[in-house]
Design brief:
Elements lengths: L1 H23 L3 E2 L2 H9 L6 E7 L11 E2 L6 E7 L4 E6 L12 E9 L2 E10 L12
Parallel strand pairs: 1-2, 5-7
Antiparallel strand pairs: 2-4, 2-6, 3-4, 4-5, 6-7
Length: 134
């Protein structure tokens, strides 16, 4: 009985440690204002910010600039509260980025600039129903 009890206690301890570490690193959905406030208070965690690309009447993204060799880029995004923010992404532009309807950037502020580690896209072409001809 003693060996099985010791193994059970070790197993439960490992499960608890995994659960705590998973929730400790979980990021949250926030606005740019909330992410900036948390950054200024010393938080270095990652945030999910949901919004739309800032586009003009000709459907061009405002504030869009490519980095060296097109390996990074910067763009303007408007969050759900209507705040415009410049976002830097240190990777090449994802396919269909310019066609995106909604964007989720995952990252945080570094030197008072929002830096995205990941970009999730919602493209309208993926979610429209096609006409079915019989």
């Amino acid at each position: 009985m003693k060996n099985s009890s010791a193994i059970f206690i070790v197993f439960i301890s490992v499960v608890v440690i995994i659960i705590i570490s998973t929730f400790g690193d979980a990021s949250t959905y926030v606005s740019f204002n909330k992410a900036k406030d948390m950054y200024e208070s010393g938080s270095m965690s990652k945030f999910h910010v949901v919004g739309k690309l800032n586009k003009d009447q000709n459907n061009r993204i405002l504030g869009f600039t490519n980095g060296e060799n097109m390996l990074s880029f910067t763009f303007e995004m408007i969050d759900e509260e209507g705040k415009k923010e410049s976002v830097f992404y240190g990777e090449p532009m994802p396919p269909d980025f310019l066609l995106s309807e909604q964007v989720v950037v995952i990252g945080g502020y570094e030197n008072n600039k929002f830096v995205a580690n990941e970009i999730l896209l919602k493209c309208p072409s993926k979610y429209t129903e096609e006409d079915i001809k019989i």
